[in-house]
Every structure is written in C-alpha cells, then in structure tokens.
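Reminder to self: tokens first, then the designed residues, so the page reads top to bottom the way the pipeline ran.
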C-alpha cells in the first residue's frame, strides 16, 4: 500500500540540530515499510532530499511509526468498504 506520512524530522547537521516539517512517501503494511521519497518544507515548497534516506534508514522508531500508520490506513479502508455495502 502506498502511503504518505507527515511528521517533523530533527536532523543533527554538524553541531546543530534543526527541525523540519517532512513528508515521507513509502510503501507499507503490517510487516514492512519501504521509504521511496522524503521531502522537507522550505518556505511554501516541498523539496526532495534523497540524502536524508541514508540518515534515517537505521531509525527503528521511525519505521515502527510508518508500519503503524500503514496498518491504521488499512483498517480505515476496510471500515469504509464495510460501510459502503
């Protein structure tokens, strides 16, 4: 399932830490989360930042959040499908 997750990423760039509004596009499910793209907000625009993938690829808490988000989206879709019958 393709998903989009909005969050705030705190990146340590050298001695300084900075928070960015981020949008993560990924494929996910109960047991997986494969990040396709990360974008951060710069002013009014969203800018792709592919170099962030290497910084977050070992972040187990982030991947746990993405999997939980995908499972919630699947549950929502099932509920909508049931009510449309």
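Designed residues (85 positions):
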């Amino acid at each position: 399932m393709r998903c989009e997750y909005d969050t705030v990423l705190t990146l340590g760039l050298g001695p300084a830490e900075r928070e960015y509004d981020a949008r993560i596009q990924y494929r996910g499910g109960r047991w997986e989360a494969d990040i396709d793209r990360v974008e951060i907000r710069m002013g009014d625009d969203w800018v792709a930042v592919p170099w962030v993938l290497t910084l977050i690829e070992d972040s187990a808490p982030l991947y746990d959040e993405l999997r939980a988000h995908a499972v919630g989206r699947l549950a929502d879709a099932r509920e909508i499908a049931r009510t449309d019958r």
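Residues 2-83 form one domain.
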